[in-house]
Amino acid sequence: MISKKQAKLVHSLEVGKYRRRERLFVAEGPKLVGELLTAKFSPKAIFATPDWQTESNKELNKQSSINIISNNELRSISLQRTPNQVLALFPLPEYTLPSDLGRTNIVLALDGIQDPGNMGTICRIADWFGIEDIICSHETVDIFNPKSIQATMGAIARIKIHYCDLENYLSTARNLGIPVYGPFLEGNNIYDTQLSTNGIVVMGNEGNGISASISNLISNRLLIPNYPAGRITTESLNVAVATAITVAEFRRRG
User: Fold this and answer.
1) Among residues 176, 48, 157, which one has the least CA distance to residue 100?
2) Is residue 243 within 8 Å of 197, Cβ to Cβ?
3) Domains along the sequence of the chain with CATH
4) d(Cα 156, Cα 126) in Å, to the nearest integer?
5) Peptide bond into 83 cis (omega under 30)
6) If both were cysteines, with which of 140, 155, 189, 243 could 136 make a disulfide (CB 3.0 to 4.6 Å apart)?
7) CB 133 within 8 A of CB 162
8) Do residues 207 and 72 lie in contact, with contact meaning Cβ atoms separated by under 8 Å?
9) Triad 109, 113, 114: Cα angle to 5°
C-alpha cells in the first residue's frame, strides 16, 4: 500500500526544484533500479509489484525494505507511460569535481545539451567507452530528470556527472595544459588529426552547437567529415551520434 504522502513525493520529483530540495531522484524498471542497487546506491524507498520479487532479485531485495504494491498503484505513481514492476527513490549522488579532469584520461564536457534523451544516451556512450566523468554547464539538462535518468539505462550508476561554470573550468584546464577538443564544421578531419590519450571533449547544444564563449577555449577543432566529400547531405549529426563517433575515434587511437 502506498500513502498519499508517498505518492505526492514521487510526483513532486518530476520537477527539478523539488529534486534539489528533497535531494532525491526517481528510477523505474528492473534494469535501472537493479543497476543502481548493484552499484551500491542506497534507496530511500522501493515500491514494487510481487513480480519484481523473483529469485534473481533475492540479493538485491535484502538491501532495503520494499513496499509491495499492486500494478494499479504502480501506475498511479509512475512517471513513465508504461510502468514496469518497480519504482525506487534514491538520494542524489554528490561528487567532488577535481580541477584537473582530463589530465590523464578522456572526459566529456556538455555545453547546453537540452534534450533528455540525448543526455541519457551520451551517458550510456560514456559508460560504453570507459569514460567515468562528464562535466556539464549549468545550462545542460538535469541528468536526474526522469526522462534523462531512464535513457541512461543504468549507465548513471557508473558515471559521475558534474555541473559547474563550464567556461571557468575549461579556462583552468587550458592553463594546466590539458587539451580541449570540440567538433566544428571548419575543424580538422578527425581521422587525419593527431589525438591525445587525455583531454576534454566538448559537445555542444543540439541547435546551436558549442557556444561562442566556450569555442574560444577549444584548443583542437575537429570535423567529422561526411562521405563523399562535397556531397550535399544532411545539415548536421545528432549530438549523441556525434559524441559516439568522436569518442570511438579517441579510443581506437588509444
Assistant:
1) 176
2) no
3) 4-91 (3.30.1330.30), 106-253 (3.40.1280.10)
4) 10
5) no
6) 140
7) yes
8) no
9) 160
| Residue 75 pLDDT class (50, 70, 90 cuts) | very high
Long-range (24+ apart) CB contacts under 8 A made by 15-24 are 16/142, 16/145, 19/92, 19/142, 19/144, 20/92, 23/91, 23/92, 24/89, 24/90, 24/91, 24/92
230: left (phi over 0), alpha (psi -120 to 50) or beta: left
CA 84 to CA 158: how far, in whole Å? Answer: 22
Asked if 253 and 199 touch (Cβ cutoff 8 Å), the reply is: no
Confidence check: pLDDT of 189 > 60: yes
The predicted structure's pLDDT at residue 63: 55
Supply 174's cell numbers: 587550458
**Would the pLDDT of 183 be above 70?**
yes
What's the mean pLDDT in 4-32? 96
Sorting pLDDT into bands at 50, 70 and 90, what band is 96? Answer: very high
Q: In 10 A of CB 180, how many CB atoms?
A: 20
Whether 177 has a pLDDT exceeding 70, the answer reads yes
Per-residue model confidence as pLDDT tens digits over 223-232: 999 988 778 8
Average pLDDT in the chain: 93
Of 44, 245, 31, 1, nearest in space to 129 by CA: 245
CB half-sphere exposure, 223, CA atoms < 13 A: 10
Cα-based angle 105, 106, 109 (whole degrees, multiple of 5): 135
